[in-house]
């Protein structure tokens, strides 16, 4: 059994200049519910998830990825992780303490090798949630987060060394080399992926839908609403999950997905997939062709939050 430091992905936090449009998008179109708010910060939950919230939106003059949050087993493991990271020279934002966000809990934050803020927490109170019904096109949970990196090999090594992440699969191109690493911290194919990009930034966040029908209904709802679709609908080979990518009002890429692969870890061996083969990017052949213009949409803006902890 693999010794993972993290149990699962909790939430992603974004800072945006156009706060009201962002909230309207996620609540009126994307399908999330308000779990709490405090001044210019709103916490958004998925109806099918026990997580207290899966997206946090904060108003700021600068657009940035505030943080990515993961769960830990218990408070003792949080303390042990903070001590170990400190000894290894990883820059901590603060010492472990009680959290003052919805669900509470106990945790701390640190900067990864490229300056992203990562939060680790345990003992967060579960949120009252419900079963998402058949035909209901709203997210069940946050599936995974993908980030752009100028040195993906070093970033992958950072998460492998300090937290026991395992590489599930890698995407490569004959001309460009290795381009994306899918990392897991449990039996799901990936909760994080690292993409080679022109600057560190959020590539996309992905939301799991109940099933194929709900995924397609959600995709259609976005298209009918005139939300800019980047790529999809289709089905990737790595992870075997469906995909439809859209831009939120502040230019962040968001994905609807479903049926992400759950691995038999004892027998799994990573693949090196050549994405110049169209069937690797989209097994169905239903998505618009991937090209440099489509890819550039998810490069995102230069992240102004690197090695700068969010104020909340």
Automatic annotation (TrEMBL):
- Annotated PANTHER family: GLYOXALASE FAMILY PROTEIN, METALLOTHIOL TRANSFERASE FOSB
Spell out the SUPFAM superfamilies in the cross-references. Glyoxalase/Bleomycin resistance protein/Dihydroxybiphenyl dioxygenase
Single GO molecular function: 3,4-dihydroxy-9,10-secoandrosta-1,3,5(10)-triene-9,17-dione 4,5-dioxygenase activity
What protein does this entry describe? Iron-dependent extradiol dioxygenase
Q: Does the keyword Ribosomal protein apply?
A: no
The residue ranges crossing the membrane are none
Matching InterPro entries: Glyas_Bleomycin-R_OHBP_Dase, Glyas_Fos-R_dOase_dom, GlyoxalaseI/FosfomycinResist, VOC_core
Q: What is its EC number?
A: 1.13.11.25
Name the UniProt key words of this record, in alphabetical order. Answer: Dioxygenase, Oxidoreductase
Query: Where in this chain does the record put each VOC domain?
Result: 8-123, 141-259
Encoding gene per record: hsaC_4
Pfam annotation, one family:
Glyoxalase
């Amino acid at each position: 059994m693999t010794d993972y430091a993290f149990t699962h992905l909790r939430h992603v936090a974004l800072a945006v200049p156009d706060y009201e449009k962002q909230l309207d998008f996620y609540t009126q179109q994307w399908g999330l519910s308000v779990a709490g708010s405090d001044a210019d910060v709103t916490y958004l939950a998925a109806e099918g998830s026990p997580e207290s919230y899966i997206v946090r939106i904060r108003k700021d003059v600068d657009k940035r990825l505030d943080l990515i949050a993961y769960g830990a087993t218990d408070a003792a493991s949080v303390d042990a992780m903070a001590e170990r990271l400190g000894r290894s020279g990883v820059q901590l934002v603060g010492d472990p303490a009680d959290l003052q966000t919805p669900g509470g809990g106990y945790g701390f934050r640190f900067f990864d090798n490229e300056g992203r803020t990562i939060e680790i927490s345990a003992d967060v109170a579960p949120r009252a949630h419900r079963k998402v019904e058949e035909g209901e096109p709203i997210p069940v949970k946050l599936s995974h987060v993908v980030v752009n990196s100028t040195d993906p090999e070093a970033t992958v090594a950072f998460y492998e060394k300090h937290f026991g992440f395992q590489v599930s699969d890698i995407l490569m191109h004959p001309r460009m080399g290795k381009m994306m690493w899918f990392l897991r911290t449990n039996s799901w194919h990936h909760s994080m992926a690292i993409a080679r990009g022109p600057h560190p930034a959020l590539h996309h966040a992905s939301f799991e839908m109940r099933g194929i029908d709900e995924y397609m209904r959600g995709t259609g709802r976005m298209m009918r609403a005139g939300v800019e679709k980047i790529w999809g609908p289709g089905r990737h080979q790595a992870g075997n999950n469906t995909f439809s990518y859209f831009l939120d009002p502040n230019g962040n890429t968001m994905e609807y997905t479903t049926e992400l692969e759950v691995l038999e870890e004892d027998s799994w061996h990573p693949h090196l997939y050549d994405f110049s083969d169209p069937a690797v990017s989209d097994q169905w052949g239903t998505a618009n062709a991937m090209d440099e213009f489509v890819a550039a949409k998810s490069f995102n803006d230069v992240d102004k939050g690197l090695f700068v902890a969010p104020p909340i």
